[in-house]
Specification:
The structure is a single chain. This protein is α+β, with helices and mostly antiparallel strands and about 475 residues long. The chain is about 50% helix and about 15% strand. It has 17 helices and 14 strands. Strands 5-4-6-7-1-8 form a six-stranded mixed β-sheet, sandwiched between helices. A four-stranded mixed β-sheet has the order 9-14-13-12, sandwiched between helices. Helix 5 (about 105-115) packs antiparallel against helix 6, helix 6 (about 120-135) packs across helix 11 and helix 8 (about 155-180) crosses helix 9. The longest helix is centred in the first third of the chain and has 29 residues, at about 1-30. The radius of gyration is 27 Å and the shape is globular.
Amino acid sequence: MRYQEKQDLRNESNSFKLKYVKLACHYLVSKAMYLFLLPLTIALAHLSVEDFVHFFNHLVLNYLELVILCIMLTIILVTGYFMSRPRQVFLLNFVCYKPDPTQMCSTETFMKQFELSGSFSEESLAFQKKILERSGFGEKTYVSKSLLEVPMNLSFEEARKEAEMVMFGAIDELLAKTGVKCKDIGILVVNSSMFNPTPSLSAMVVNRYRLRGNILSYSLGGMGCSAGLISIDLAKQLLQVQPNSYALVVRMESMTLNWYRGNNRSMLITNCLFRMGAAAILLSNRSSDRHRSKYQLIHSIRTHKGVDDNSFNCVYQKEDSTKTVGVSLSKDLVTVAGEALKTNITTLGPLVLPMSEQLLFLASLIGRKIFKMKIKQYFPDFKLAFEHFCLHAGGRAVLDELERNLQLTKWNMEPSRMTLYRFGNTSSSSLWYELAYCEANGRIKKGDRVKSLMNFSSLNSLSLTD
């Protein structure tokens, strides 16, 4: 026992030393430019004004043509750079929909509704209770009104009313916050994975707010939780070709028509995991909005794993043996989500990580691949690239896997875990509840960087950097 304690202390000491070695390396590399310029600055400080004037006159008299050519070339290059660089995209504001308190649903209420429906066997009821108890949800999450009625009113009309309630509720508050006129919105993107009526959800928004006739409107369906950031990425790309425009992005999910009434265990999980929620976001590429916007969108990296059969089949809508439609969740979901995450951060890393972390990763890779050294592959510390992390609150197991893979602290994971506890898994809108949590608790300061990450079926893994 005493030997084990000594060993633990020695490992802790080594870990402590390694931490400060990494910090020192990070500081030296990040300040390398200043260290390089310091001797030059000292040398220039010893020159007088007359020395600078004499040097300039010497250039004009002896190299006049060269100086003019350099000036013209500089002007051309600077003009070309500003003409070709992507338009900056700003996030003016966002709103998360908060349902009425009468729509709160505790575990006890949920189980009572399960029993009253008469659709489930005793084994299925016990299984769903077990899932609810391990979900990480609190007792004040929200569900649609139709699921609280006795008997449940699982009609198409109720699903449409649910969609209108959450979408219009979020949009009304967003427009009131920003003061933007409906006629100024040139791009509209609405996403809902499971509920896609005709007329489309985007058409419902256009009709309600009388948006202009030449608006670019899109409805995304079947893309699950990741559609939240995919819709932001689509709006960002459209803003590159639509000058002086606003883009309205709305994300929601309907619970009413996605209630599974069978006894297939892999399909029963969705009854327990998803809750009501929606978010509306307003983006702009107008330079005049820079100072009143909350965030600037920097990078959006998307990884698609649909070519892999395990990834393709891990979330699958189908009929069970009794021809009842539901969404099946594979046991491999968390594993393949982790694989998609690794691919995604490999692409994101060079764009956001400080040079010190990239050099450490490169040195580790060279040692393992070229010199065949038996060392563990170095995993970059993304906490040096971002101050805040908004990771999809898909469930407690999903968050545990993300925390382990990204080597995050309890503080980093708090927004995701608290969102899961308070609102549950609201699908594509969950990230915005997490960002709202960060703002409400005074976590975000001017200049901070936020990493948002969504996974769905491991078909799509998308990172957004604010």
